[in-house]
Amino acid sequence: MGTVNINGRLVGDGQPAYIIAEMSANHAGSIERAKEIIHAAKESGADCIKIQTYTPDTMTIDCHNEYFNIEKGTWEGENLYSLYQKAYTPWEWQGELCEEAARTGIDFLSTPFDNTSVDFLEGLGARFYKIASFELVDTPLLEYVASKNKPIIMSTGMGTLEEITEAVEAIYSTGNRQLVLMKCSSAYPAKSEEMNLSTITDLKARFGVPVGLSDHSMGAFSAATAAALGASVIEKHFCISREIKNPDSTFSMEPQEFKAMVEQVREVEKALGAPFYGVSKQEETNAGFRRSLFAVEDIAESEEFTAENIRSIRPAYGIKPKYYKEVLGKRAAHALKRGTPLSFDDIKVQG
Q: What is the full DSSP assignment across 201-215?
């Protein structure tokens, strides 16, 4: 399993999860709030702040027939064009937000949705790209993004195995193999029973690339579980407060929640550690409570060791219990008091 270098940070097996705070529409139309979100994300433990680069016209057309109206879900009753008008991040802000992220010491990432947004982000000096689940099937866009030879983090929500394979092949066809795949449930919010997080390990096995989680569920449980499954990247929607209403607020994390999630992920990573057998440093004190062979009655010199006068008991100051059968029938080299740990020097050499 390889690693991908994202802005100087290795992402992949054996590395801490790279954690992305997705701002999306949570700026709610205010560039000052967008900057506040950048700082709050950094303080909450995020490695990266992510935005989205589109306009309503690069996403769809201004049309209100039945095809463009949303009938179910989080955005029920909305028209697509109107929704994107509310949600988009003005392009004239994005250079300033990129500079703010640099001053804050947090990586800056955006999701482009068409070639013009890729060109725009190239002009901002984009170091890497995110592909949204909904664009997984737009292979011309994938090829154009990949042609920039930057690392790509690609969500796979709703993707069939065939569609994911086609998307990966489209990127690889350009010679760009700097790819991270993201398990994603493209529901807002996503239900735990539909997360299918075991897909993370399956994607890793099938494609041999780092795999992460783009998490739209509520709370930190899925993110921590993903870390336990070896997720290399975790992305979560981030807001200052869900009370600031916008198209993404209902399924976004507030700073204290995000910070708690990051702490849980880091604790999971510590707990995973590396394969290890034996007595750990913390176990050293308790290792003394293992079993060993002891004299459980007074034993005279030359007396035979029997099941009545020696036993395997706690603590561990005597020889290991695996020698019990060998010791039985042997004779004591000298007298032993009850409660004395047995050593090989206590056994008479028979000749």
A: HHHHHHH-S-EEEEE
Q: Kindly report the number of other CB atoms within 10 A of residue 300's CB atom.
A: 12
Whether residue 211 contacts residue 202, with contact meaning beta carbons closer than 8 Å, is answered with no
Cis bond leading into 112, ω under 30°? no
Distance CA 40, CA 120 (A): 26
CA distance 260 to 254: 10
DSSP 253: B
Residue 293 to residue 324: CA distance in whole angstroms: 7
DSSP structure class, residue 346 = G
- Domains with residue ranges and CATH for the chain: 4-272 (3.20.20.70), 286-346 (3.90.1210.10)
Q: Which position has the token pair 């002009």?
A: 123
Distance CA(80)–CA(158), nearest Å, equals 19
Q: What type of residue sits at position 41?
A: A
Q: Which of 215, 199, 192, 251 is nearest to 73 (CA)?
A: 251
pLDDT tens-place string over residues 219-243? 899 999 999 999 999 999 999 999 9
Is pTM beyond 0.85? Reply is yes
Contacts of 196 (CB under 8 A, 6+ apart): 183, 185
pLDDT (tens digit, 9 = 90+) per residue, 10-51? 999 999 999 999 999 999 999 999 999 999 999 999 999 999
